[in-house]
């Protein structure tokens, strides 16, 4: 294996990090960089990787078949409990980047992630190792700013806080690659897949599409030449975050709630239903009108999403996507509605957004056995209860009427007694 500079420390190693960060880093031109990986709470991932010299198979699952490649970017793996190794790696002058995939919960007050980062940064300051970038790869709006606030909030030493403010940069990023859970069948199938790592017990399965938009605020801090691997370096990631939230994530939520009501189990199945597809197109039309990006770029993103969603070999279940609607819908759907109304107060809520809100309402009230969201309205909720959770400022007569009408259309489409349903019923 090529000797790699262990310049990246990654916290929260899992399937997504191995399909995204490690894959991109392996593909860069110039000096080969390596990743020292640390788990979150469970040491299992580190033990499994160490058992096979930190190499693993990345299976790219296209609609027409699988391909395999061996990823060798991870040069060491440690359990998250190994605090001494963590401090040593972050304090090393060879390390100039720390990346994270710790989910949204890792940034909340009281979470242990900020404290672990502060512990490592304190060791780096003591070692005089110099400037470093902390890069969040989690699906959070302005994740760099969120990470900075979480880290500084965990510091109780004024001198250390001043050092962090002067020495550490927190670039925001937008990441995208669907990475379903690896199954026993996936592991068994490696035996028949050319270029797979022999006897690999921890492969990762992913879709062909990958995207990474990264804020260029490294200010001279050494990093891999990620742009040579297709990473887009920009001054502001906000428009790209909005594009992902409003197009990909918004459509996912709509497909989850509407698709489940119509009897579907996966994104691909729901996307193949003309009623769901029409609702998604309307939601995308509404989002496109508010996106601060060139129209041709938005059209290309929509076309790409149609292909991705329709891939029947990426089994992305609607039940998994449906979780957490009370937190997801405000940023995926309601934000677009607010911008639409701010631009044109008389435009009302769009039919795509009305269908998304109505579908979540029916999911919570008529499929309550599937709901695990503590913030969701109860099974006896009305439309006012739903809006009180996700958008109390939108509880107006026009919005209530539009959502109620959309809910009536969904009920009609979902009624099992109808059999074959007119595909125009949701329009």
Fold topology:
Blueprint: E1 5-11, H1 15-19, H2 21-26, E2 33-38, H3 44-50, E3 56-62, E4 65-71, E5 74-78, H4 83-91, E6 97-100, H5 112-127, E7 132-136, H6 143-153, H7 158-167, E8 168-169, E9 173-176, H8 184-189, E10 204-206, E11 211-215, E12 232-234, H9 238-261, H10 267-271, H11 274-288, H12 295-310, H13 318-321, H14 325-343, H15 351-366, H16 383-390, H17 397-414
Parallel strand pairs: 1-2, 1-6, 2-5, 3-10, 6-7, 7-8, 11-12
Antiparallel strand pairs: 3-4, 9-11
CATH class bucket of the largest domain: Alpha Beta
**Number of helical elements:** 17
Count of DSSP E strands? 12
* Helix-strand topology string: EHHEHEEEHEHEHHEEHEEEHHHHHHHHH
Strand content: 5-15%
Average pLDDT confidence is 94
Summarize the structure.
This is Mannitol-1-phosphate 5-dehydrogenase. The protein is of the alpha/beta class.
Describe the structure.
- The longest helix is centred in the middle third of the chain and has 24 residues, at 238-261.
- The chain starts with a strand and ends in a 13-residue tail after the last helix.
- The chain folds into 2 domains: 5-236, 3-Layer(aba) Sandwich (Rossmann fold), CATH 3.40.50; 239-418, N-(1-d-carboxylethyl)-l-norvaline Dehydrogenase, domain 2 (Orthogonal Bundle).
- The strands form 3 sheets. A 6-stranded parallel β-sheet has the order 5-2-1-6-7-8.
- Helix content is 46%, strand content 14%.
- A hairpin with a 2-residue loop joins strand 3 and strand 4 (65-71).
- The protein has helices at residues 15-19, 21-26, 44-50, 83-91, 112-127, 143-153, 158-167, 184-189, 238-261, 267-271, 274-288, 295-310, 318-321, 325-343, 351-366, 383-390, 397-414; strands spanning 5-11, 33-38, 56-62, 65-71, 74-78, 97-100, 132-136, 168-169, 173-176, 204-206, 211-215, 232-234.
- With 427 residues, the chain is of the alpha/beta class.
- Helix 9 (238-261) packs antiparallel against helix 11, helix 9 packs across helix 14 and helix 9 packs across helix 15.
- Its EC number is 1.1.1.17.
- One of its GO terms (molecular function) is oxidoreductase activity.
């Amino acid at each position: 294996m090529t000797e790699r500079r262990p310049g990246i420390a990654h916290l929260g190693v899992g399937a997504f990090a191995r399909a995204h960060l490690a894959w991109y880093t392996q593909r860069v031109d110039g000096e080969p960089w390596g990743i020292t990986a640390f788990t979150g709470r469970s040491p299992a991932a580190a033990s499994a990787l160490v058992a096979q010299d930190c190499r693993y198979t990345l299976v790219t699952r296209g609609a027409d078949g699988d391909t395999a490649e061996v990823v060798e970017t991870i040069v060491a793996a440690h359990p998250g409990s190994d605090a001494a190794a963590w401090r040593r790696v972050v304090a090393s002058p060879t390390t100039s980047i720390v990346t994270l995939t710790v989910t949204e919960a890792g940034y909340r007050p009281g979470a242990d992630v900020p404290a672990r980062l502060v512990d490592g940064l304190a060791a780096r300051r003591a070692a005089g190792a110099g400037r470093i970038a902390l890069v969040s790869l989690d699906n959070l709006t302005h994740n760099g700013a969120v990470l900075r606030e979480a880290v500084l909030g965990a510091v109780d030493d004024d001198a250390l806080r001043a050092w962090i403010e002067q020495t550490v940069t927190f670039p925001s990023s937008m990441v995208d690659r669907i990475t379903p859970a690896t199954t026993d069948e996936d592991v068994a199938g490696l035996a028949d897949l050319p270029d797979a790592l022999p006897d690999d017990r921890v492969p990762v399965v992913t879709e062909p599409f990958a995207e990474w938009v990264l804020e260029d605020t490294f200010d001279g801090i050494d990093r891999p030449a990620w742009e040579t691997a297709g990473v887009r370096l920009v001054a502001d990631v906000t428009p790209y975050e909005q594009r992902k939230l409003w197009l990909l994530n918004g459509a996912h939520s709509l497909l989850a709630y509407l698709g489940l009501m119509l009897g579907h189990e996966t994104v691909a199945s729901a996307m193949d239903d003309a009623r769901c597809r029409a609702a998604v197109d309307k939601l995308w039309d509404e989002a496109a009108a508010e996106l601060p990006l060139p129209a041709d770029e938005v059209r290309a993103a929509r076309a790409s999403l149609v292909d991705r969603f329709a891939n029947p070999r990426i089994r992305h279940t609607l039940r998994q996507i449906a979780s957490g609607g009370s937190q997801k819908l405000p940023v995926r759907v309601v934000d677009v509605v607010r911008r639409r109304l701010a631009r044109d107060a008389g435009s009302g809520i769009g039919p795509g957004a009305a269908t998304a809100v109505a579908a979540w309402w029916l999911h919570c009230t008529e499929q309550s056995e599937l709901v695990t969201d503590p913030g969701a309205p109860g099974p006896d909720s009305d439309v006012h209860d739903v809006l009180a959770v996700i958008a109390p400022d939108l509880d107006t007569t026009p919005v209530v009427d539009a959502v109620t009408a959309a809910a009536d259309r969904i009920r009609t489409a979902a009624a099992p007694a109808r059999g074959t349903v007119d595909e125009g019923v949701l329009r």
